[in-house]
Amino acid sequence: MNTQTCTSELLTAAAALPEIMTHLELHQHLAQVDAFMQSLVTSPVLLISQPARHVIQAGGKRLRAALILLAARLNHFDLARVLAVASAVELIHAASLVHDDLIDQSPRRRGLETVHSKWFRDAALVGGDYLFALAAESIARSSDLRVLECLGRASVRICEGEISVVPDVSPLDEALAAYFTKIAGKTAVLFEEGLKAAGVVSGADEEQIAALGRFGHNLGMAFQITDDILDYVGDPQELGKPVGGDLRRRQITLPLIYAAHQDMPVALRTTIDRIDDGASAEEVERLLHWVQSSPAIELARRDALRYCEEACRALELFPVSEVRAGLEAIAWSVVSRRH
């Protein structure tokens, strides 16, 4: 797909999405997901319940829940069971973010204090565990063991993806393989298994469940690549955090990998190795600016678009409908977002 075609797809999707969401009552159902999650927070221990409510009330895109609510409409929509799955997936996602922020020592997320910053380290550890436990409670309400299998697999792979590292930017093929493996576990698997679970509770057949899984995997890959691009070139006001955070923590992501193979000056290449071992703030800023202005951003964006195209191709198994159009619109909005 060429750039002009991609731009046309993005504009069409952006125009169609609000109307589709309104017609399918998606906003109302997402509000029910939030209410359902809040209803699960019943612990009388304030150092558990307050951080949990803080994370849930912080909101976010609720992208995973929206996808699940839509995907379930491709077959037989049972709102109670779908709400249980959508809530479980959002709680798993929230739990992983609490632990992720603790590992990275991130002070803010979405413009708000992170749990370990607002409270303390142990509150983040236990709070993340509590959110995982609430997800398990929500899964139980879906009344299907296959949902537990899907989201259990996702939780395991999220842990594996979070702890894995991309050791270096070279050799190129090894760095790319390590990066794509990491984001498949850290991010894409929850999209994949969450959408498969949506298929399960809506009575989809095995072929349809597999197609939803492929859609979710590819969309999750596109989402994380776009996230990593925005960490270099996004608007800090819209992101709710400064750009360049991954680089300053020496977290090697796709833009940096590609930039290192675009005739990067030796001094900057050396800075990559020294970020956590003596590189000055000025050296890191020079490296950041070089990556921002290099072809690496466009190369990474092409990969995100390619994954998005593969995601939409997986939906071709389903008849053309407003629901399928909604899923495709969300997919394209993922790679065109600015935060």
Please specify the SSE layout and strand pairing:
Layout: H1 3-23, H2 26-40, H3 46-57, H4 63-71, H5 79-104, E1 108-109, E2 112-113, H6 115-118, H7 121-140, H8 145-163, H9 172-201, H10 206-233, H11 236-239, H12 245-248, H13 254-259, H14 266-274, H15 281-293, H16 296-314, H17 322-336
Antiparallel strand pairs: 1-2
Q: At the first level of CATH, what is the class?
A: Mainly Alpha
What's the average pLDDT? 92
Oligomer, anyone?
single chain
Q: Could you give the order of the helices and strands?
A: HHHHHEEHHHHHHHHHHHH
Q: How many helices does DSSP assign?
A: 17
Structural class: mainly alpha
CATH superfamily: Farnesyl Diphosphate Synthase
3D structure, described in words:
The protein is an all-alpha fold. It is 75% helix and 1% strand. The protein has one domain (3-336): Orthogonal Bundle (Farnesyl Diphosphate Synthase), CATH 1.10.600. Helix 5 (79-104) runs antiparallel to helix 9 (172-201) and helix 16 runs antiparallel to helix 17. The longest helix is centred in the middle third of the chain and has 30 residues, at 172-201. The chain is globular and about 60 Å long.
